[in-house]
């Protein structure tokens, strides 16, 4: 499982709870041994562990480094002999994916021909991140803040709770008082699109090859909001023939945060379809 930009591995927990319930003993669905979720090195608890290496350099943890770490994990004894399914959300689909939920990737041609359409989406996101509040007195204060403000108040309450618990770390404010701040440094999130452009191009090239060898499934939210239509069109075009394309109604790019149970049900249907 691979999370999106500005998120963390624990955001998969509500989806996984639903998924394992669906595939529990006694059901006719394929059994699930376990689930592994991997933090991007600049996100979540990984950002805390890598704090000294990251500093304020947005280039210190590119997506291809995450992909390299993933490759090392997949070659390890931890999953030797296991039947694995990669599930990525948003930027996580660039790292690795067989089931792609709202993929945010494109090829170089799409960027060159449509960057004037795409860039405003990137700028809007980056500016929002830079202006966003990032210091609270406690995790409880942060949770109360999130519950009353967009976009967090549109999320499933379980996701907001998980975010408040796992996306923040203890720190001190400018006056030396105890507080909590985001684990993912704002500059890493705000600059991620530009820093990782070539990685997304490379990922699409690999996707085109991979789709000829294994089934690739795509899940989209119905509403086109944070990712422009031209990026969606690029993914579908470069896939060639997708094993399936599912559109979830009444939700957009933040489908993972707003509809974790629906994401779980969709993944379950795909796993059941591919169990042979």
Structure characterization notes:
Helices cover 47% and strands 10% of the residues. It has 14 helices and 7 strands. The strands form 2 sheets. Strands 1-2-6-7 form a 4-stranded parallel sheet. Strands 3-5-4 form a 3-stranded antiparallel sheet. Strand 1 (87-89), helix 5 (92-95) and strand 2 (99-101) form a beta-alpha-beta unit. Helix 1 (13-22) crosses helix 14 (260-273) and helix 7 packs antiparallel against helix 8. It is globular, with a radius of gyration of 18 Å.
Give the count of helical stretches: 14
The radius of gyration is 18 Å
SSE topology string: HHHHEHEHEHHEEHHHEHEHH
Structural class: alpha/beta
Mean pLDDT: 92
Beta percentage is 5-15%
Enumerate the strands of the largest sheet in spatial order, edge to edge or round the barrel.
1-2-6-7
Tell me the major beta sheet.
Answer: 4 strands, parallel
Helicity level, as a percent range?
Answer: 40-55%
Organism: Mycena pura
InterPro entries: AB_hydrolase_1, AB_hydrolase_fold
Protein name: AB hydrolase-1 domain-containing protein
Pfam family, one: Abhydrolase_6
Short description:
The protein has 276 residues and is an alpha/beta fold. It has helices at residues 13-22, 44-49, 51-54, 63-74, 92-95, 108-131, 139-147, 157-166, 186-190, 192-195, 197-210, 229-239, 255-258, 260-273, and strands at residues 87-89, 99-101, 135-136, 168-172, 178-182, 217-221, 244-248. The strands form 2 sheets. Strands 1-2-6-7 form a 4-stranded parallel β-sheet. A 3-stranded antiparallel β-sheet has the order 3-5-4.
